[in-house]
Amino acid sequence: MTIHPTDQATAGAARRPTRQRAALAELMSTTSEFLSAQDLHAKLQERGDSVGLATVYRNLQAMAADGDVDVLRTDDGECVYRSCGTEAHHHHLVCRECGRTVEVEGPAVETWAAEVARQNGFSDVTHTIELFGTCTSH
Amino acid sequence: MTIHPTDQATAGAARRPTRQRAALAELMSTTSEFLSAQDLHAKLQERGDSVGLATVYRNLQAMAADGDVDVLRTDDGECVYRSCGTEAHHHHLVCRECGRTVEVEGPAVETWAAEVARQNGFSDVTHTIELFGTCTSH
DNA sequence: AACTCACATGAGAATGGTTGTCAACAAGGA
DNA sequence: TCCTTGTTGACAACCATTCTCATGTGAGTT
Ligand SMILES: [Mn+2]
Ligand SMILES: [Mn+2]
Ligand SMILES: [Zn+2]
Ligand SMILES: [Zn+2]
């Protein structure tokens, strides 16, 4: 059984620069909400920088593996991506109405997670912590 | 945009008791790991209490809506269900090797989540907090 | 610049968990 | 027993994501 793979260490295997990845990265850098691969693919098409859907998926995965973008799953199982301001470990407070996202840190929650894991003898612990709510604009 | 629906309050609309739901509930009450709908469907078949796959899905959703079972998504997007010991709000520490699950509470983390939301002016806040690791049997 | 070659791309097919359809069933009140 | 209505199950349909593979393109090398 594998509920949550450990696919961490993705040593920087020289990725080749392409127009497609550049366009995607540029688009994401100017967007603050979490968007799905399909959303991004559509926006690229509107904008003229047409990129194949499979390529969007592949690059998003690569960028996520490299830690360049954050991923989370919507309630209906769709993956959504976002280019965050910091490379450091953090979590998100997302508006479920408009997608507005705030990056949050929680030293307390980090130590809590580590402590709980230790007390139960678990090792190689990772965690998923996301907050959802309704922002002030609603 | 809807990243995380608020589908909470599902007033107890009298659900009609059936052999199928009983078999499913019974199976889940004797299982401690998180299992997928397909896993459960297969186990029911082995055991003789054959139940249609669609029915398994429907009942799991109903049970989840009623708060009778907990749901979480595996890394590959599959929903997995578990009948927990308590009805009270809690989280999980799951072994990614064998699925062994420990129910954990975190008053500190609850207040942290609420506080972060308040500071950013978000309302109707919910959170997703799950811990994954490797248990002592590995 | 021409040559090479491994990596990247894209159009479309395939995958697979989940949901929809709808006729046959069955719980429970009249 | 009869009716009404929620429930079931076999199978089709959905749809996000992955796979396939022929073609394209970085970037060294000569
Ligand atoms: Mn953290
Ligand atoms: Mn909590
Ligand atoms: Zn909002
Ligand atoms: Zn284990």
TrEMBL record, chains A, B:
State the CDD domains in the record.
Fur_like (cd07153)
Location within or outside the cell: Cytoplasm
**How does the cofactor bind to this protein, according to its record?**
Binds 1 Mn(2+) or Fe(2+) ion per subunit.
UniProt keyword DNA-binding, yes or no: yes
**Any one Gene Ontology cellular component term annotated for this protein:** cytosol
By its UniProt entry, which InterPro entries does this protein fall under? FUR (IPR002481), Fur_C (IPR043135), WH-like_DNA-bd_sf (IPR036388), WH_DNA-bd_sf (IPR036390)
Annotated signal sequence is none
Q: Required cofactors, per record?
A: Mn(2+); Fe(2+); Zn(2+)
Q: Does the keyword Acetylation belong to this entry?
A: no
**Annotated GO biological process:** negative regulation of DNA-templated transcription; regulation of secondary metabolite biosynthetic process
The residues that the entry says bind Fe cation are 89, 110, 127
Q: Which GO terms describe its molecular function?
A: DNA-binding transcription factor activity; transcription cis-regulatory region binding; zinc ion binding
Q: Which UniProt keywords apply?
A: Cytoplasm, DNA-binding, Iron, Metal-binding, Repressor, Transcription, Transcription regulation, Zinc
Say where the protein is mainly found.
cytoplasm
Can you tell me which residues bind Zn(2+)? 95, 98, 135
Spell out the family assignment given in the record's similarity comment: Belongs to the Fur family.
Q: How does it assemble?
A: Homodimer.
Name of the protein this chain belongs to: Transcriptional repressor
Organism for this UniProt entry:
Knoellia locipacati
Q: Which gene encodes it?
A: fur_2
